[in-house]
Design a protein that fits this description.
It is built from seven helices and four strands; from the N terminus they run E-H-E-E-E-H-H-H-H-H-H. The protein is of the alpha+beta class. Helix 3 runs antiparallel to helix 4. The longest helix is centred in the middle third of the chain and has 33 residues.
Length: about 220
Amino acid sequence: MITVHHLENSRSHRVLWLLEELAVPYQIKRYQRENTMLAPDELKKVHPLGKSPVITDGNRVIAESGAILEYLQLKYDSEQQLTLSNEDEQIQGRYWLHYAEGSLMPLLIIKLVFAQLSKKPVPWLLRPIGGAMRKGMEKAWLNKQLALHTRVIEQHLSQHAFFAGSRFSIADVQMSFPLLALQMRGGLHDLPATTRWLEEMQQRAAWQRALKQGGPIKFSD
């Protein structure tokens, strides 16, 4: 049986969601974050990087969200419910599958890291400097980059029901996490198509079941 090594409040919700969509039996091994919000060292016993998501399937250990989603689809989508037969949709789905972690998530991580510069454990004397650095970086570069990316996403979803095109696919599963993070941080204002898509994803029965299994998803500022 597949074991999902699930770190609380993490990207592994996507793995649970896909398993629920495919109705694949699985079990969850839960891990709690340290006070630093990092994953515990116990995860390094599963994969040397000690990060989530990671799954074990027999003797196989598979990490990285995109690789896990592709593996699960290839091995367990026996009814081909997520298979894209149209070549253009295959190309489009593959693009968004890799875009999520390769282009969009790094921007969100940078935003999160800079947000911590004005908080503990940064010494209180340095926090005003950290806050000033954050505001300067966001104004000069980061906010413009995020605005560019969200415009591209909005334009795409205003023309397509799903990221691959006309069918739900693992590209939608992969894109859910960064867009949920943006929504919870107030970054989807005036993006009706993107908001519509995310609401529809959250209404899927498999999403709801995964949420019950893995717990709520929260994002710190």
